[in-house]
Amino acid sequence: MTISTTMVVGAGQMGGGIAQVCAAAGRKVYLNDVTMDILNKRLAFIESLLTKDVAKERITEEQKAATMANLIPVTDLDAGAECDLVVEAIVENMDAKASTFTRLDRICPESAILASNTSSLPITEIAAFTSRPEQVIGMHFMNPVPVMKLVEMIRGLATSEQTTEIIRQEAIDLGKTPVLVRDVPGFVSNRVLQMLINEAIFCVSEGVASIEDIDTVMTLGMNHPMGPLRLADFIGLDTELSILEVMFEGYGDPKYRPCPLLRQYVKAGWLGKKSGRGFYTYN
Ligand code: CAA
Ligand code: NAD
Question: In 3D, which of 148, 174, 158, 177 has the Cα closest to residue 87?
Fold first, then answer.
């Protein structure tokens, strides 16, 4: 099976990036979100990235136009009926994902693969909301999607070999390097990364050093491209908290407990870059 038509559900920072790379690879892409306003803003952002790529002579004007023409904004899921693959990238919340997968299962062709870009939620549980658990898989892209080369593929208990191979090939066709991991809370990426970020937040709350200095230790001292606090802002502090809670509950191990300061920031609406304020402030 080859993928020619994809739907991306959720046009946030991740869904927008996933839609962009799929469209650039020649797929017809339906991009879904709850309002046309969100979709239009996301398409304008994608266009601005492609305009920069044209200016840097990485792509031609024609390639930019072809990518934009492949992107079709939609506010309902009905176009799923035409799709070979759906990649869900809505908010990191099991109830929301369950309702989306239940609806997609009713709308999409029997042969379609339903993938989730979840950062930490169990693929096996998401798959159980459908009648096709063998065709449900984690397709975990990294942020920012157009730049980062990894796709972490997560195989649920029932995910078939055939589904895994189709998604492995699709990730390669999108210019990414796939790795296969088992369905454990946080997978590999967030099981490792979130320990670093959570520990950095504990350092802030204990007043060990300033926010800037904690980040500088990791950028200049360890050559990380971003310090953990700036990275947390970039990922989104609501997403951060959800991931840590999934791991804390999933492993029952106190080492995954979210720092209370992170909870406080999220309750204050300080969600990082997307809300204009997190550990840093943004225009
Ligand atoms: N969307 C698309 N492209 C973006 C972007 C975005 N949101 N942000 C930056 N870029 C592009 C820039 O346009 C620029 O492209 P050009 O080279 O074509 O100009 C390129 O990235 C480099 O950007 P900058 O020069 O502005 O800044 P930088 O050199 O600091 O790089 C960065 C930015 C790529 C984000 C880099 O800081 C980085 O790699 N940071 C770490 C990212 C990371 O760890 N991601 C994984 C997060 S964890 C995750 O995704 C999983 C999860 O479940 C939470
Ligand atoms: P985001 O908050 O930027 O975007 C989420 C989008 O989903 C919003 O535009 C929202 O309007 C939309 N949405 C919410 N409910 C919806 C529904 N029922 N139907 C359609 N659209 C809906 O979030 P994000 O950072 O793009 O994260 C999305 C998913 O990707 C989450 O599962 C997250 O854990 C995962 N993820 C995030 C990162 C990251 O660095 N932020 C990295 C990898 C994976």
Answer: 174
Residue nearest to atom 21 of ligand 1 (CA): 147
Q: Quick one: which ligand is closest to 102's CA?
A: 2
The encoded tokens of residue 273 equal 């870059």
Does the pTM exceed 0.90? yes
User: Which strand (E) or helix (H) includes residue 65?
Assistant: helix 61-69
In this structure, which residue's CA is closest to atom 41 in ligand 2?
A: 235
- Burial pattern 251-262, b for ≥16 Cβ within 10 A else e, equals eeeeebebbeeb
55 alpha carbon – ligand 1 mean position (Å): 18
Q: In a 3-state reduction of DSSP, which class is residue 213?
A: helix
pLDDT in tens, 167-196: 999 999 999 999 999 999 999 999 999 999
How far is the first Cα of the chain from the last one, in angstroms, to the nearest whole number?
A: 45
Q: Is the dihedral of CA 31, 39, 90, 108 positive or negative?
A: negative
> What is the rounded average pLDDT of the residues 147-165?
98
Helix 237-251 with 260-267: angle, nearest 10 deg: 140
Q: How far is the centre of ligand 1, averaged over its atoms, from the C-alpha of 116 (Å)?
A: 22
